[in-house]
Amino acid sequence: MTTPSPTPILLQPNASPRTHASTIAPERMAHDGRVRAVVEAVLPAVDAGRFAVKCVAGEPFVVTAHCFTDGHDVLRVMLCWRADDATAPVEVPMVATGNDEWRASFLPPASGRYYYTVTAWVDSFDSWRRELVRRVDPEDICIAARVGAIEIAAAAHRAEGEDQAALVEWAQALEDEALAAGAVQSAERATKATALKALALDSDRAELIARYPDRRHEFRYPTEFPLVADRERARYSTWYELFPRSTSPVPGAHGTLRDVENRLPAIAAMGFDVLYFPPIHPIGRVQRKGKNNALTAQPGDVGSPWAIGAAEGGHKAILPELGTAEDFRRLVGEARRHGLEIALDIAFQCAPDHPYVEQHPDWFRWRPDGTVQYAENPPKKYQDIYPFNFECDDWQGLWTELKSVFEHWIGEGVHIFRVDNPHTKAFPFWEWVITEIKRNHPDVLFLAEAFTRPKVMHGLAKRGFSQSYTYYTWRNTKEELTAYFIELSSGPGKDYFRPNVWPNTPDILNEHLHGGEPAVFMSRLVLAATLAASYGIYGPAYELLEHDPREPGSEEYLHSEKYQLRHWDHDRPDNLRDFITRVNHIRRENPALHSDNSLRFLSIDNNALIAYAKRSPDGRNTVVTVVNLDPHNAQSGWVNLSAAWVAGAEAAEEESAALAPAPAERWQMHDLLSNQRFVWQGDWHFVQLDPHRVPAHVFLVRRHVRREHDFDFFE
Questions:
Q1: Residue 683 annotated in active site
Q2: Based on the domain organization, do 324 and 461 belong to the same domain?
Q3: Is 715 a catalytic residue?
Q4: Are residues 342 and 253 in the same domain?
Q5: Which of 103, 457, 503, 530 has a CA that sits 20 to 30 A from residue 272's CA?
Q6: Same structural domain for residues 339 and 484?
Q7: Which of 126, 151, 345, 420 is catalytic?
Q8: Do 323 and 458 share a domain, yes or no?
Q9: Which long-range contacts (CB under 8 A, 24 or more apart) does 145-148 make?
Q10: Is residue 454 domain-resident?
């Protein structure tokens, strides 16, 4: 038999497809019908990409896509991401995880805005290669090798330089060897076909061709999804609130920013990283409120800090009694030296004598009697506060001026803002101003103080707020806490709503605290600090168990610091300073408590006890918390914590699951509050908590590793 002469396949012209008269009008064709890859969903996404997902810069951001194609061809899927100011995306190969789901991640390198999407195509070369692996008939192998030679030659057209030469050589070798194998007798053909198959499946050359895929018929998901990467403090933060005017060491004297400086070491020592002030601006004198929110102020009454503005200035000025701009800048620097950030309250409202009222009367609503409409929430009236009219004709001028308030304080060194009642201001304004501020100052964070309806709270988070207040203050039973924190940690809002939980605020003295029992204050603190990665306290009041309401059933404090100076004796023997310090130290030392999405509630057979666990992303740190919700009685029960979960074997969906060790026979539970240690075995474990001692366990789980000389070792 004569061996056919080898043909240089790269010189073969492409075959022209047979043409047919189209029976489908071009305008009715959805897209190029040769595009066979399907990308059905890209996750996470907030409202189909209308709003940004949130993440932390420098940490892996995981994207999942639902992708498939017809038949059994091989699909290639790429995650495409870019920074806001970049045009060319970075591509990351996605990995199939089963059920047509694909996964990949990338690390946003710095705080800022990013975009991501997914593209996919049918990989004709890998499809051919996968089929060739299964072929055993020599004649089939020879034919398939010639098909592969055409695929490789096509890739060579897309390559350059040495790569192109190597692919041309490979394609020609396949064509030549396939023709040669086809020209010999069957026995010898089988031997040649085996060698031919090995040549075709050369893995090194396959890696080379992967650099030059045929993406003419790729499908790119039509939406670029926005992503906001914040710094770590957006995910994990510990807040302490105080009124600077109440920091004087002299009872009855007005505190100053220099007095606040003297408090910095103690606040830092307690483990807080954010020091938050209510408004520090001049306070209006017209319609000033008196003590306990009295309508008429008496001589010497200092008024509410939220009644902003007077002859001395408005939102960019500092109350003269507190100090100067230079004092403030010094305080910001000293706080930073102690590991603290200053957070300022931004309340976009005015006292009647705020300069804006005279300079921009059109920014307010005027009543028929010629007076400005003050704030109301019937039957409550706030005669000392004028809200802005976001429907005024000069709304653009109003927006620009309010944006300049943020810019002023950023210039003074503030990068965290707690925004007062944002749900009472226009939502388009927040979306615009937060986007604008973060474009130039991506490290700035915004906390939304909005105790309002769920959809409104979520709407604010979607529009850019970095963190949000929650309903935690009113969630007290085991059922309420469990349902609410499952919603926060794993519900639809987990991709954009970052909770910041507070057991008290200057506005909220929950009835649960009215009895003043230390066990209640301690248990509520532990719950806040371990259920949520970000929490805060209205500090002096919480430290000193402040619990008297203005009247029975009220959530207002008696002698509220909102309307008068207070003197706090931080050295009082019944203070909770040491307990708060211990809890915050535990938070800081355990990465499991630095995020919310690993929260898992545990079964426990007593409704007066609540138990839950958190695990760090790398699986190396696990914390189990048990809290007694009964402040009066010791409670005991059996909690379910399986050995399999402790060993990590339960996380089958995680990439590391295959490497998880076998379930531990025993493990040590180190109570970080009491420093006691217990060894647990099996799945059910007995706990007992006396609220008159410590109402909670916060266990660090240490796995058993070996036994030597009758001593157990744990890590």
A1: no
A2: yes
A3: no
A4: yes
A5: 457
A6: yes
A7: 420
A8: yes
A9: 145/174, 145/175, 145/177, 145/178, 145/181, 145/196, 145/197, 145/199, 145/200, 146/174, 146/175, 146/178, 146/179, 148/174, 148/200
A10: yes
pLDDT value at position 185?
A: 78
With tokens 């976009």, the residue in question is 348
In a 3-state reduction of DSSP, which class is residue 41?
strand
Q: How confident is the model at residue 706 (pLDDT cuts 50, 70, 90)?
A: low
- At 280, which amino acid appears? I
Residue 51 has pLDDT above 90, yes or no: yes
| 550, 686: one domain | no
563, 589, 615 - which closes a domain: 589
Q: Which domain holds residue 573?
A: 234-280+318-348+394-589
User: What average pLDDT score do residues 84-101 get?
Assistant: 96
The per-residue DSSP string of 638-699 comes to EEE--HHHHHTTT-TTSGGGGGPPPPPSEEEEEETTT--EEEEESSEEEEEE-TTT-SEEEE
User: Whole-structure pTM over 0.70, yes or no?
Assistant: yes
What is the distance, to the nearest Å, from the Cα of residue 207 to the centroid of all Cα atoms in its chain?
A: 37
Residue 368 within a domain: no
**Into how many domains does the chain fold?**
4
| Token digits of residue 688 | 């007992």
Q: Which residues, in sequence order, are CB contacts of 396 under 8 Å at separation 6+?
A: none
Mean pLDDT score, 530-555: 97
Select which of 177, 261, 449, 495 is catalytic.
Answer: 449
- What does the block give as tokens for 678? 């217990």
Say if residue 448 is in the same domain as residue 537.
Answer: yes
Q: Which residue has the tokens 């189209």?
A: 22
